[in-house]
């Protein structure tokens, strides 16, 4: 039995321990380098217990994203007037990337999404469900879902160039300067005049 080998039993505290070890592994080893056996070894549990709680490596990654990504802090930035929505959102987003307790996790998630289609699908589902849909609900202009998607794509692009690829001079710019430069474009996506009819018409025709 697992308990007789000195392994931890399957209780909620054990599940949280496994999850914390999984987050650390995804951050330090990436998606390809993280394994069920490796996480089980770090948590001193049987691999079967990891499978019991999370079902698969993808299930473990999904749970790790939900645990480690500060989605609620980003959603808080949605509150307030639309006129300053981009300013609040970009400032919060960049500050989270700058935070040593969150930035490495963000980078690991992006690396994982680039390395694995399964991880990319999990990230897309999380973003759509937890971020893009609530953001669209805050917008009063036409095609709010597409507006949110364009805004998110630019923000992720900035993060990729600054924090993951570390391309200078963007990587070494003061964060307030990056926020000030990026914000007007994000605000335009969210509330400005955009010609989206052709885009939506093309998508509907497919």
TrEMBL record:
GO terms for molecular function: DNA-binding transcription factor activity; transcription cis-regulatory region binding. Residues 35-54 bind DNA. The keyword Lyase does not apply. Gene3D superfamilies: Homeodomain-like, Tetracycline Repressor, domain 2. Residues 12-72 form the HTH tetR-type domain. PROSITE patterns: HTH_TETR_2. It holds the Pfam family TetR_C_16. Keywords: DNA-binding. PANTHER family: HTH-TYPE TRANSCRIPTIONAL REGULATOR RUTR (PTHR30055), TRANSCRIPTIONAL REGULATORY PROTEIN (PTHR30055:SF235). This is TetR/AcrR family transcriptional regulator. The lineage of its organism: Bacteria, Bacillati, Actinomycetota, Actinomycetes, Streptosporangiales.
